[in-house]
Design goal:
There is one protein chain. By secondary structure, the protein is α+β, with helices and mostly antiparallel strands. It contains five helices and seven strands; from the N terminus they run E-E-E-E-H-H-H-E-H-E-H-E. The strands form two sheets. It has a five-stranded mixed beta sheet with strand order 4-1-7-5-6. It has a two-stranded antiparallel ribbon with strand order 2-3. Helix 1 packs parallel to helix 3. It binds magnesium ion. Magnesium ion (MG) binds next to strand 1 and helix 1.
Length: 166
C-alpha cells in the first residue's frame, strides 16, 4: 500500500549546454552533457518513482539511442513516470532530493526548483525537500567535472489504508 523507491544519476559538465536543474535554468558557464536536457534532478526523481513500482529505470523507457528523446525536456520523463504510477493507482506521498557537487550553489535556486517540482508533480511544497552537499573536493565531482543527484520517494496507493494520511 506504500512503496519506497530510490534514484541516482550523474552527468558530466560540458560547454554549449544550458544547465537545467529541476526544470529551472541555472546561470552557470557550463551545462550538463546528455542525450536529453540532462536534468539529473528530474532523472533521479523519475527513476525513484519507477523503482518504487517495480517498473525498471528511465533508460528502459527513454533509451538514449532513441532520436525521439534527443535534447528532450526531462519534465516529459517525469510526467511519463507519474502517469505509469497513476495507471497502477499510486501517487507521490513525498520526495527527498539531494544534489551533489561543488558548483553551482543551489541556495539561490532552491525555492524556484521546489515550486517547479510541486507544479510538475501536483504535490504540495511541504512534501518536497531539496538538499545539496559537496564531496569535500574528493573525486571527479569534487573536481567540478559534473554533478550527481540522489532521490528517495514514497508512493501511496490510492484508496489504501495510508491514503489521505500521507
Ligand atoms: Mg540522467
Amino acid at each position: 500500500m506504500i512503496r519506497i523507491g530510490q534514484g541516482i544519476d550523474f552527468h558530466r559538465f560540458g560547454p554549449n549546454r544550458k544547465l537545467i536543474l529541476g526544470g529551472v535554468e541555472i546561470d552557470y558557464p557550463l551545462g550538463l552533457v546528455g542525450h536529453s536536457d540532462a536534468d539529473l534532478l528530474l532523472h533521479a526523481l523519475s527513476d525513484a518513482i519507477l523503482g518504487a513500482l517495480g517498473l525498471g529505470d528511465i533508460g528502459q523507457h527513454y533509451s538514449d539511442r532513441d532520436p525521439r528523446w534527443k535534447d528532450m525536456d526531462s519534465s516529459l520523463i517525469l510526467s511519463g513516470s507519474l502517469a505509469r504510477a497513476q495507471e497502477l493507482g499510486y501517487y507521490l506521498g513525498n520526495l527527498d532530493l539531494t544534489l551533489i557537487g561543488e558548483e553551482p550553489k543551489l541556495g539561490p535556486y532552491r525555492d524556484r526548483i521546489r515550486t517547479n517540482l510541486a507544479r510538475l508533480c501536483g504535490l504540495e511544497e511541504s512534501r518536497i525537500n531539496i538538499k545539496a552537499t559537496t564531496s569535500e573536493t574528493m573525486g571527479d565531482i569534487g573536481k567540478k567535472e559534473g554533478l550527481g543527484a540522489l532521490c528517495i520517494v514514497l508512493m501511496v496507493k490510492k484508496g489504501g489504508p495510508f491514503s489521505g494520511t500521507l
